[in-house]
From TrEMBL:
Record PANTHER family: HYDROGEN PEROXIDE SENSITIVE REPRESSOR, ZINC UPTAKE REGULATION PROTEIN
InterPro entries: FUR, WH-like_DNA-bd_sf, WH_DNA-bd_sf
Gene3D superfamilies reported in the protein's UniProt record: Winged helix-like DNA-binding domain superfamily/Winged helix DNA-binding domain
Top-level taxon in the UniProt lineage: Bacteria
This protein's name: Transcriptional repressor
Pfam families xref list: FUR
Length: 141
C-alpha cells in the first residue's frame, strides 16, 4: 500500500483509484483549485464523482475550502497535522488580482478571535488581495 492510500485510510476515506488521482493532482498544485480545474484535469470522469470526492475530502479534513471573493469556491490540501479547527489551524490566504490565483500562506496563522458571548464561529476565512510575488517580479523586469 502506498503513502496516499495509507493517508486516506487513516482519514477514514476508502482509497479508490479516482480519490488517489485527485489527491495526487491537488498535491502537485501550487495554488488552490476550483472544481472546474479538477473537472478539466479529469475530463473523462463523471462530474458528480469529482464533486463527491472533493466534498468527502473536505468533510474528512483532507482539503479546506477557500472563499476568495471571486465567486468560485477553491480548495487546497490541508497541512499535515491539520484538523481544520478554528482555534488552531487557521492561516491566511492570498488572492492575486493579476493572475487570479489563490494560495495558502500556511506559515501566517490567523490569531484566535474572541467573539462576544452568545456568538459561535463556524468558519473563519481571511483573504488578502493584491499582487502575488510571481506577478510583481514579472512587472519589475
Amino acid at each position: 500500500m502506498n503513502e496516499i492510500e495509507t493517508f486516506l485510510e487513516h482519514k477514514n476515506v476508502r482509497p479508490t483509484a479516482m480519490r488517489i488521482l485527485i489527491y495526487k493532482y491537488m498535491a502537485q498544485q501550487d495554488t488552490a483549485v476550483a472544481l472546474t480545474d479538477v473537472e478539466n484535469a479529469f475530463a473523462k470522469a463523471e462530474r458528480t464523482t469529482l464533486y463527491r470526492t472533493i466534498k468527502t475530502f473536505e468533510e474528512k479534513g483532507i482539503v479546506h475550502q477557500i472563499e476568495d471573493g471571486t465567486g468560485t469556491t477553491k480548495y487546497a490540501l490541508c497541512e499535515p497535522g491539520c484538523n481544520c479547527e478554528i482555534e488552531q489551524d487557521l492561516h491566511l490566504h492570498f488572492h492575486c488580482n493579476n493572475c487570479d490565483e489563490t494560495v495558502c500562506l500556511t506559515q501566517h496563522k490567523i490569531p484566535h478571535i474572541n467573539l462576544p458571548d452568545g456568538y459561535l464561529a463556524e468558519d473563519v476565512n481571511l483573504v488578502v488581495k493584491g499582487i502575488c510575488e510571481k506577478c510583481s517580479n514579472q512587472s519589475n523586469q
